[in-house]
Design brief:
four-stranded antiparallel beta sheet, 2 domains, 40% helix, 332 residues, Alpha-Beta Plaits, alpha+beta, seven-stranded mixed beta sheet, Ribosomal Protein S5, domain 2, disordered N terminus, 10 helices
Length: 332
């Protein structure tokens, strides 16, 4: 129930491609998922946002050098030159990372195992790219700076999302919650442990569609959108204060009101609203959609870290396709 999603393929990707006698170097990398706690959509209009690492969902990558480029993943197994468009971000990550560490990208093979679902707003593409970058660094012995890693991950994210905000690329390699404000990124202090449950509606989110919808709404009802965006920005500041104070009640209130404002700009959906309502009935201090909306996931704050199991059970019983429980530990 509270475990990361397991792959449907029992054999590891490394077993499927490790038999080639042409292997000359190997490396491994991993990265975790991410979830936006508060501030989605408003961040597009210059307001702050807070994102959390999701360490219970991970991407692991093994890099090996071959006589030709190849990919082994749950989405595609085969040579890179014949790969479908859906793995184009992977190819972009391999190329960028290979060139950065001095490998010929036409000879790099990657084996990818990920428990982060695609299209749910949990940073799947960024985590895979980060793991590829770290695996290439490991194989080559080339040490990359944090900024170099970020730029390489973003090379893949631009293929996946067009104009990525950078939230995913930063958070999938961070051990702490991050504040994104006016192009700057800063770690946040956490005053006490918080327990969260992420619940998947079973339907993919559609960030592009949601963003387009908000833009269209702004043209017809600018006051409504501007008011909601400004209020979400204020609530994000409130959430930052609540995190630092270890105040679950205040954080929950900020999350709940943020969800109401996201509904006002039409980025929620009945499936999301149903899980949010179920979370509150099960005793959650607060709950809201996370990410682009129109599908995807919600994030719920448990009354205490010890209550995450019961909350996850309730959301599964309500019909959540998958749940992930996580504890955000207090800053030492």
């Amino acid at each position: 129930m509270n475990q990361p999603l397991r792959s449907e393929h029992p054999e590891t990707a490394s077993i499927r491609i490790s038999g080639s006698p042409a292997v000359r170097a190997t490396g491994a990398g991993r990265a975790h998922g991410k979830v936006i706690l508060i501030g989605e959509h408003a961040v597009v209009y210059g307001q702050p946002a807070i994102a959390l690492p999701v360490t219970t969902a991970e991407a692991e990558v093994e890099v090996e050098l071959y006589d030709s480029a190849r990919i082994d993943s749950d989405l595609y197994v085969g040579f890179s030159e014949t790969a479908p468009d859906q793995v184009a971000p992977v190819i972009a990550a391999v190329r960028a990372a290979s060139e950065a560490v001095g490998f010929d990208p036409e000879r790099v093979g990657v084996a990818i195992r990920s428990t982060i679902p695609v299209g749910r707003g949990l940073g799947s593409s960024a985590a895979v790219a980060a793991a590829i970058v770290d695996a290439a660094s490991d194989a080559s012995g080339v040490v990359l700076s944090a900024d170099e890693r970020y730029e390489l991950i973003q090379a893949s994210e631009r293929v996946a999302h067009g104009t990525p905000s950078g939230i995913d690329a930063r958070t999938v390699v961070s051990d702490s919650p991050l504040l994104f404000a006016q192009g700057e990124v800063a770690p946040l202090r956490v005053g006490a442990s918080f327990g969260f449950v992420i619940a998947d509606t079973g339907a993919p989110s559609s960030t592009a569609q949601a963003l387009a919808g908000v833009r269209a709404l702004q043209e017809t009802q600018p006051g409504l959108v501007e008011g909601a965006v400004e209020r979400i920005g204020e609530l994000t500041a409130d959430a930052r204060t609540a995190l630092a104070a270890g105040d679950a009640a205040a954080l929950g209130e900020a999350m709940a009101e943020a969800h109401r404002n996201l509904r006002r700009i039409d980025v929620s959906a009945p499936s999301l609203d149903g899980l949010v309502s179920a979370a509150r009935k099960a005793g959650a201090a607060g709950a809201k959609l996370t990410g682009g909306g129109l599908g995807g996931c919600i994030i719920a704050l448990a009354a205490s870290p010890e209550a995450t199991g019961e909350l996850a059970d309730a959301l599964e019983q309500e019909g959540a396709a998958r749940v992930w429980s996580m504890t955000l530990e207090a800053t030492r």
